[in-house]
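// run 5 | inverse folding | seed 20
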């Protein structure tokens, strides 16, 4: 019964299209081919904010005002211009810098760059460049974290950056995690700690002082792939969660690394009052899907669409849903009160969007 209701909802949302104007209370940010674009009016084409072309991993601050991201460092791009992009250099991630964008002011600040004497593939000069992961925000909005390693090496550091003091610190060195392809492991920061995500189901959880708390063992089932890694906040506990392609969640205690059994379910929620929440599940014929859960008691129509958490978010008001995949895989649309509004200028024949940022969101346990 549920399966038939869901498929009906998926069809309903596609058929209930609208060309109505929509003026967002904050711009919808699109990540497209290494640059960021802003959408303030859904009926006009997005406005390009950056001209970098190498931006990756953009992430919105908990207060919704800033975007932190990684961009390829000039030292690596210059090296690519001098050597063929084959062999040794093609097997490793390029050196990266960390930036922060003030969305309202449209001002970009360099947070972490390369060493003053940086060098890469210069004859007679030792390589000296830093590869970094994409950054993660602290829950209180005051700091960033990322992992980094020296180019060509496999010893990884966990770095934090404090905006108040404008200083960065290596809080843990020689992380016990495999480096694959010269790429720094991903980071997630929650109230339970800082999680480092590696390949081969590796996971490390650190305290904010650099103490290793636990090393949970991820246990994907046959034909399952991770779709999302996130800290799930509850009223009295923070758990680290992995959402698999089957729609199954695995939740881990950060202090012990032991998988937890719970009847509650992780929801992606807006932080505004009376915001919607998004529940994720999976069906064999549609894959991962989201559907709205209304905590305000409103009787408006619900929404649903097949796309994973990385391709959907909520508006600052928490009452609208932006998602990638309509009218085609690279297109963006906004769901509002049972109607779906395509974002002008997006889609496979225009701007093929890879990620979206809009309102501040958090993962919480249902009922928490």
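// decoded
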């Amino acid at each position: 019964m549920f399966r038939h209701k869901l498929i009906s909802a998926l069809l309903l949302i596609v058929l209930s299209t609208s060309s109505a104007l929509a003026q967002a209370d904050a711009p919808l940010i699109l990540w497209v081919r290494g640059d960021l674009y802003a959408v303030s009016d859904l009926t006009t084409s997005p406005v390009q904010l950056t001209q970098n072309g190498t931006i990756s991993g953009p992430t919105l601050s908990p207060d919704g005002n800033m975007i932190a991201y990684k961009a390829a460092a000039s030292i690596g791009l210059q090296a690519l211009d001098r050597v063929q992009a084959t062999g040794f250099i093609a097997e490793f991630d390029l050196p990266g810098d960390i930036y922060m964008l003030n969305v309202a002011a449209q001002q970009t600040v360099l947070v972490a760059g390369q060493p003053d004497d940086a060098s890469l593939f210069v004859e007679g000069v030792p390589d000296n460049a830093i590869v970094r992961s994409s950054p993660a925000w602290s829950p209180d909005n005051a700091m960033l974290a990322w992992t980094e390693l020296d180019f060509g090496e496999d010893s990884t550091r966990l770095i934090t950056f404090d905006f108040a003091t404008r200083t960065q610190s290596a809080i843990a060195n020689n992380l016990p995690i495999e480096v694959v392809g010269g790429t720094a492991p991903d980071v997630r920061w929650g109230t339970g700690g800082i999680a480092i995500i590696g390949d081969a189901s590796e996971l490390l959880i650190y305290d904010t002082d650099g103490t290793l708390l636990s090393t949970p063992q991820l246990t994907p089932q046959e034909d399952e792939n991770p779709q999302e890694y996130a800290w799930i906040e509850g009223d009295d506990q923070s758990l680290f969660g992995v959402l698999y392609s089957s729609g199954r969640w695995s939740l881990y205690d950060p202090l012990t690394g032991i998988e937890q059994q719970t009847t509650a379910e992780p929801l992606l929620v807006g932080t505004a009052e009376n915001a919607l929440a998004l529940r994720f599940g999976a069906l064999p014929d549609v894959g991962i899907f989201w559907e709205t859960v209304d905590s305000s008691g409103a009787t408006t129509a619900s929404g649903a669409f097949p796309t994973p958490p990385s391709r959907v978010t909520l508006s600052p008001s928490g009452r609208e849903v932006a998602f990638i995949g309509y009218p085609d895989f690279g297109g963006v649309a906004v769901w509002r009160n049972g109607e779906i509004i395509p974002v002008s200028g997006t889609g496979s024949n225009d701007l093929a969007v890879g990620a979206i940022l809009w309102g501040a969101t958090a993962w919480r346990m249902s009922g928490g």
